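Reviewer 2 asked us to include a model.

Predict the structure of this chain.
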Amino acid sequence: MTCTLILTRHAKSAWDTSAPSDHARPLNQRGQRSAPAIGDWLRDIDMIPHQVISSSAQRTRETYDLMGLNVPAIFIERLYHATADVLFQVLREAEHRRVQILGHNPGIADFAHQLLRNPPDHSRFEDYPTGATLVATFPIDNWSDLSWGSGKVVDFTVPRELLGA
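Predicted model (structure tokens):
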């Protein structure tokens, strides 16, 4: 048995906004095009999560909505700019075997690097740009058994590749 993690950084957000806080910043037009492409890619590779666990920020909520995955989601305040350790703790509490986490850098990138046995052969994995999505499997039956460095890459993409930009 295995558990599968889909680790996605939110799509590109707007900086020229009247949002009252960083937490409330929305996606920009590029992000609004990228998020559906991520959802389409997950459907194409047959990797629809059973549950999404997301930061409560506006840009992660919009990314989730625009992916159009039609799966249950929970939005957790402590995932807003969470460290790799917090992401690890949250994932260890997950109940479904195929989970997507939606979050922010630098925590998402650090988390991805520490979880994998070997990184993907991809030029953008190091900086984990907006919309970057990793699919990795773990040789465990329950997330509570998760350990650092145990993940195996299934796939990794960035929206620029999906949109042909």
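The CA atoms of residues 117 and 149 lie 5 Å apart. Helices lie at 29-44, 58-67, 84-92, 107-115, 159-162. We have added this to the supplementary material.
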